[in-house]
Amino acid sequence: MTSTTLTAPAVALGTWAWGDSGEAGDGHFGSQLTAAGRREIVAKAQSYGFTLWDTAAVYGMGRAETVLGQALNGHARGGYQLSTKFTPQIAGDGDDPVADMLQRSLVRMGTDQVDLYWIHNPADVARWTPLLVPLLRSGRIKHVGVSNHNLAEITLADRILGDAGFRVEAVQNHYSLLYRGSERAGIIDHCRQHDVRFFSYMVLEQGALTGRYGPAHPLPAGSSRAAAYNGILPQLQALTDRMRAVGEDRGASAAEVATAWAIAKGTTPIIGVTKPEHIDGLTRALDIELADDEIAELEALADAADVDTRGSWEQDI
Ligand SMILES: NC(=O)c1ccc[n+]([C@@H]2O[C@H](COP(=O)([O-])OP(=O)(O)OC[C@H]3O[C@@H](n4cnc5c(N)ncnc54)[C@H](OP(=O)(O)O)[C@@H]3O)[C@@H](O)[C@H]2O)c1
């Protein structure tokens, strides 16, 4: 059996943007983080209790894992949790592609075990899930989650692990005001009923729901997120204006309202932090209690925006 139950802070931190090279216009985010900047974010987050770091082998094709390991260097290994992913779409053709990909992640991050290991996308649940069992038994991974899986795939993965005495302890899906497929598909209810932690990613829609970006100030030119979102920013204006107003009453920003919304829905947001001040924002978000009518109003505005922000890697859940 899994030796301990998965525990996690109320908000996890994401590092996809950390995989960008730092060159202007390069990468998915067009992010220009420096090593010193990443270390500052890590030090602040750790001191505030945000100690679960989500990454993946594919973020910058290994770069995000490498720079995360470097930024955490010097912090006690027991003081933080590492969450990374096996991505079937880049699996090798060796005897055990899962163990091979995990091993490369461990080397990049400079550690010998991962606290939370995910199957990133559901390419073939029956093929990949059993390969997690020896990794759990050896202690190289402590807990297992599945990401971007639909309800049937979550249940199948859980049954496969259950046969070996383990379980799916976490689900990680795209979930934001604009993208609530996991709610409609009953996945969030399923997680609540089965004591499975639901981690919501892209709660800020990669910056489009922070209030920082808009038609007059679009996402960084040349980045993939600009291509995905800049065309819909005008449709998001009414929503982000209202989020900003809801935040202003509490001394908080639109991004913090988005984060508070995800927490109010019973999920654990994974926020892609790129600046130390984002950590202050997370502490404010934890203090925001949205009223039911505020949640309903924000969701109605989100629906009225009538946009589809499904990522190219996501199935229609
Ligand atoms: N399993 C999967 O398939 C999957 C897919 C996507 C993401 N994820 C995970 O979820 C994490 C979060 O998603 P994401 O990084 O793609 O997008 P996100 O969290 O929706 O947005 C991140 C962007 O929002 C801005 N931001 C972050 N915190 C802010 C704050 N407090 N105030 C204002 N702006 C803020 C930053 O943009 P600027 O730098 O421009 O300020 C940042 O790049 C990822 O890093 C990754 O770990 C998983």
From TrEMBL:
Keyword DNA-binding annotated: no
Family annotation (InterPro entries): AKR (IPR020471), Aldo-Keto_reductase (IPR050791), NAD(P)_OxRdtase_dom_sf (IPR036812), NADP_OxRdtase_dom (IPR023210)
Molecular function (Gene Ontology), one example: oxidoreductase activity
Residues in NADP-dependent oxidoreductase domain copies: 11-302
UniProt keyword Oxidoreductase present: yes
Keywords assigned by UniProt, alphabetized: Oxidoreductase
Pfam families according to UniProt: Aldo_ket_red
Cellular component terms (Gene Ontology): cytoplasm
Protein's name in the database: Aldo/keto reductase
Record lineage: Bacteria, Bacillati, Actinomycetota, Actinomycetes, Micromonosporales
